[in-house]
Amino acid sequence: MEVRLQTPLTEDKILNLKAGDSVLLSGVIYSARDAAHKRLIDLLVEGKELPLDIKDETIYYVGPSPAKPGKVIGSAGPTTSYRMDAYAPTLMDLGLRGMIGKGARNGEVIDAIKRNKAIYFGAIGGAAALIGKSIIKSEIIAYEDLGAEAIRRMEVKDMPLVVIIDSKGNNLYEIGQKQYLDSINKE
């Protein structure tokens, strides 16, 4: 099933999404990778405010390449998500609703997704130029010194995603593997 979604991602918008659903996401999302995530958590430990209100927001694990002349952003392919696993549960507990990346997540992240009714989307690795075209506006809002890993506020239009882990904890990677194994065991 293909679903069009508009950010911010409130609970009611994602509750009926299922692992495996195709999504075209539009609206504002934020970029952040592991260095930025560490800084966010360090701020929380110090009792300081985050540089963005993450309630119902979506973070894309991306370090885009520089924009070519006349373009908003360069290639913008997903980063491997497990690098953010140490930080994601804390951010979800503070209201982060969506995450976009590639690859599996650990048990703590999946528990936090279920606990907070959040969602994990997969972006297709190797499709960085295509994904970059769905980003129609981009500005650095924090940690400019991190270069490609700075936190950006990005506006996207019809960003192609797949629900990997839905708000109930159903995991496309596990479902797909089971379906495949069941199919070959029937032969």
Task: Outline the fold blueprint.
Blueprint: E1 2-6, H1 11-14, E2 22-31, H2 34-45, E3 58-60, H3 88-93, E4 98-101, H4 107-116, E5 119-122, H5 128-133, E6 135-142, E7 151-165, H6 172-185
Parallel strand pairs: 1-2, 2-3, 3-4, 4-5
Antiparallel strand pairs: 2-7, 5-7, 6-7
Tell me what you see in this structure.
It contains 6 helices and 7 strands. The chain has 187 residues and is an alpha/beta fold. It has one domain (2-185): Alpha-Beta Barrel (fumarase), CATH 3.20.130. Strands 2-3-4-5-7 form a 5-stranded mixed β-barrel. Strand 3 (58-60), helix 3 (88-93) and strand 4 form a beta-alpha-beta unit. The mean pLDDT is 92.
Summarize the structure.
This protein has helices at 11-14, 34-45, 88-93, 107-116, 128-133, 172-185, and strands spanning 2-6, 22-31, 58-60, 98-101, 119-122, 135-142, 151-165.
Radius of gyration: 16 Å
Going by helix content, strand content and strand pairing, the class is alpha/beta
How much strand content do the residues show?
25-35%
Regions with pLDDT < 50 over 5+ consecutive residues? none
The fold-level CATH name is fumarase
| Whole-number tally of structural domains | 1
The number of strands is 7
Bulk shape: globular
Q: Mean pLDDT, nearest integer?
A: 92
What is the first-to-last residue Cα distance?
Answer: 28 Å
CATH superfamily: Fe-S hydro-lyase, tartrate dehydratase beta-type, catalytic domain
